[in-house]
Write a structure and sequence with these properties.
Elements: H1 7-19, H2 25-43, H3 49-71, H4 77-99
Helix pairs in contact: 1-2
């Protein structure tokens, strides 16, 4: 998709790219869209306080994961997949137990 920006919009993006530490105007646009999505999510009437709390906790976990990865503190894919499979099996067993 191609978007035409006004002169003012282009100037804002150029300033963000230069001053905000973004590698390019595309990176600045990406960040702006993420922030806009956050605002839209928070304003949605369908979002309960529980959901918004979950979103906040998930973002914190993602940030912690990125920081850990930057330090080199990561798990190999097989370990992660095994842990996820175990969680799925545990959740399935709990769901079956509740149906009984």
């Amino acid at each position: 998709m191609q978007i035409t920006l006004s002169t003012e919009q282009s100037q804002v993006l150029e300033a963000l790219a230069q001053q905000g530490g973004y590698a390019s105007m595309a990176d600045a646009v990406d960040q702006a869209l993420v922030l806009l999505a956050e605002v839209v999510i928070e304003r949605s009437e369908e979002n309960t306080p529980e959901y918004l709390a979950w979103v906040k906790q998930t973002r914190l976990k993602i940030e912690a994961g990125i920081e850990a990865a930057d330090r080199g503190d990561v798990l190999d894919a097989d370990t992660v997949l095994a842990q996820l499979r175990q969680k799925v099996e545990t959740a399935r067993a709990a769901a079956e137990w509740e149906r009984c």
